[in-house]
Amino acid sequence: MQKLFHTSQEKDLLLPKIFVVQAIFLKQVDSTNAFMLEMSEDERVGKVVWAASQTAGKGMATNVWESAPGLNLTFSMGLDLSFMKAADQFLLSQAVPLGLLDVLDDLLPPAPLKLKWPNDLYFDHRKLCGILINSTIHGLDMGVSVVGVGLNVNQTQFQDWPTNPISMKMILNHEIELESLLAQLVVAIEKRVHQLKTDEGIITIKNEYLKRLYRYHTWAEYEVSGTKVRRYIIGIDPFGRLQTLDESSVPHTYDLKEIRFL
């Protein structure tokens, strides 16, 4: 993949140097995550790759992320997580969306903004943002993680995907300047990840994640093994699995793709 354009020093997203070493802007790429994963692990640290257009953007598993060229934010950033144990890697999936919410809460009505397990952002039951994380593991420790973010910003027409997407412009009725928003999001994510370096910060991340969790302490319908069921979300276990109760108060724990939100 050819690097079509590197941001100049003057256009380096105006980010503090403690947060990012280099920002790379691409006119078009298959996927910002795939682009960054082609770098060596050391090269990824401190990099932000932002693309105007993704030809094969990815969501969780085999899902495709729909984004009209030049209208949204599709970016990936490399984070050094070597201070964390591999067993705790779901903490990153909690910290990253909270960082996004730190910014979006100031721009959008916060009440309808929820964090759908494991790490999507929903606004009024519609998908606003998706996150894809690729992490390197070294024995019992984390290595470098590539965090990919797809945020619907200025796009107003989408194909009829089951996620029923929504954008910031559809909510606010005006366009958002992309580069300024990107800079704010990158700094906010870094700040949240920094919280994971202390026990107090980890407790804060876990508590705030549950407070913003979509359908937390609410009865709702889901699909499990092709069958519609009612479940009540009670929490997340240390491995990031969804903890629920059925109508007989029997606990059920689900991994990704074992339960579908209806």
Please, could you describe this protein's structure?
The protein is of the alpha+beta class and 262 residues long. The chain folds into two domains: 5-212, Bira Bifunctional Protein, Domain 2 (BirA Bifunctional Protein, domain 2), CATH 3.30.930.10; 219-261, SH3 type barrels, CATH 2.30.30. Helices cover 24% and strands 30% of the residues. It has six helices and 13 strands. The chain has helices at 32-37, 41-44, 90-104, 168-172, 178-195, 199-212; strands at 5-6, 22-26, 47-51, 73-80, 113-116, 120-123, 126-138, 141-151, 219-224, 227-236, 242-245, 251-254, 260-261.
**Could you tell me the strand content as a percent range?**
25-35%
Helix content: 10-25%
State the separation between the terminal residues, measured CA to CA.
38 Å
What is the ordering of alpha helices and beta strands? EEHHEEHEEEEHHHEEEEE
* Domain module count: 2
CATH fold assignment of the largest domain: BirA Bifunctional Protein, domain 2
User: Count the helices. How many?
Assistant: 6
Strand count, sense and closure of the main sheet?
Answer: 8 strands, mixed
Approximate shape: globular
Number of strands: 13
Could you list the spans in which at least 5 consecutive residues all have pLDDT below 50?
1-11
Nearest-angstrom radius of gyration?
A: 18 Å
CATH class placement of the largest domain: Alpha Beta
Identify the strand order in the major beta sheet: 1-2-3-4-8-7-6-5
Output mean pLDDT.
88
So, CATH architecture of the largest domain? 2-Layer Sandwich
CATH-assigned homologous superfamily of the largest domain: Bira Bifunctional Protein, Domain 2
**SS class:** alpha+beta
